[in-house]
């Protein structure tokens, strides 16, 4: 390639996503040069989104992990109870709220790409209303967590301790209801760094509050979980203050408007429900792993080992969730802006980067498999059990480098209903029954249960890969235009 043709490509690589679509459509430029320049543009856009998003999710997960660490320092029984309360009950609310909040992700991402900025604030208000109302029946599950856990086979002592932990998490439900819509509202505008700074500051406050409640005030498990709820509310308040004061949100947030917020709420509920089903089926899938492990012989050791592995997996999973958010924003913005080639290219780049990072993480976990558990508890038996589970943890981490990103693409395009059907088949028809068979019939214990879970995840990942890379992105642009017209409040008022 000559010097005259190189310069425009270098200049183009410094521009934005509109340039990406033009570059990918330029068939006169040599393929390698086109892909190199396009990769520079996409990686730059991806870095600005994914890096702070990963930081936000890592910090938020670190708060939850630190709560389990504080609980674990009280004893192995407390660690097992915190794990059961977190994985068995709290993840139910997390999956439901995050899933329903992803409706905002689809609509805000595509509306922002289509320059319908005023609709973002309307979607934020509608979603917050829907999620706050949903939080009321969810809180009943927390209140009656003890009999629920006993009814599914947990011991009375374990269920009682887990219920104490869960009671302190009730305020967190309603923090989720506001936080997730705010988070998606900001991410759709590529405003991610402020949330990272707010979360980082909150983590420091959280550690101080946790130390005071657990050790100084002697509130034990209840104090550990209550401090986590308070910390989530600090994040919510911080982000909302940013929206009110930031010039970057002036076009998208124009204050509360009850008429527009409640107009079309029922349609929003239906879209949110589809989103919730998709993500809940994924979140509950690993939640069921912990519940099943509680039915094994010596459940305390199984739950302790799983608590450590799930904490490590959860922390590293946040990296993939950050890429999930970046994929959703990039695909949603490009589809909404009418850029099919850029949307397809974004999928390839974000999936490749996330996969490479996941492989590196899995290698580090295998390298440190004998010492990981000592960050949570000093028990040698737990350390040996964790070391034995680490190969399965490594496989899970690698799969998590791909699957969440593809789910982010699905959210960006609004495919939640389709993915929900895939999840039902792979997770609940294949994964869980296979896990039961391996764990109980073949006496492989927790390793057998987890192996079945991995099989279901692997099948789901392959199906999503096949579906994503066979997508007609021109049709996705057409669907986005129809969806935005339907949801545009101006059109609704005309009707």
Automatic annotation (TrEMBL):
InterPro entries cross-referenced by the UniProt entry: MATE_euk, MATE_fam
Membrane topology designation: Multi-pass membrane protein
One MF annotation (Gene Ontology) recorded for this entry: xenobiotic transmembrane transporter activity
Protein keywords: Membrane, Transmembrane, Transmembrane helix
Keyword ATP-binding listed: no
One Pfam family cited in the UniProt record for this chain: MatE
Subcellular location: Membrane
CDD domains: MATE_eukaryotic
Bilayer-crossing regions: 129-152, 158-179, 191-213, 219-244, 276-295, 315-332, 344-372, 392-411, 418-442, 448-469
GO terms under cellular component: membrane
Gene Ontology biological process terms, A to Z: xenobiotic detoxification by transmembrane export across the plasma membrane
Family recorded in the similarity comment: Belongs to the multi antimicrobial extrusion (MATE) (TC 2.A.66.1) family.
Protein name as it appears in the record: Protein DETOXIFICATION
Species: Tagetes erecta
